Amino acid sequence: MIWVTIIVTFTVLSAAAFYTFFYAKLQDAPEMPSYSYMTYLSYVFFGLAGIVLLAILFCYNTIKISIAVFKTTISYVK
Length: 78
Prior knowledge:
This protein is mainly alpha-helical. It is built from 3 helices and no strands.
């Protein structure tokens, strides 16, 4: 369940980034202010997706240990 949440978070951020990037390219002319707003927003989403990906990569072992602790706690409570 935890891995699904992490994957969904990364996927949603990436999808939002691609959507805003290509929506700006298709809908607005480059001289319009909304074009630059959507482009900058897509850069923010790309940055957030990159940060989430790096956090997952750097904290992989910690996430595995926390999942094991959580499973142990659940089995003890039952």
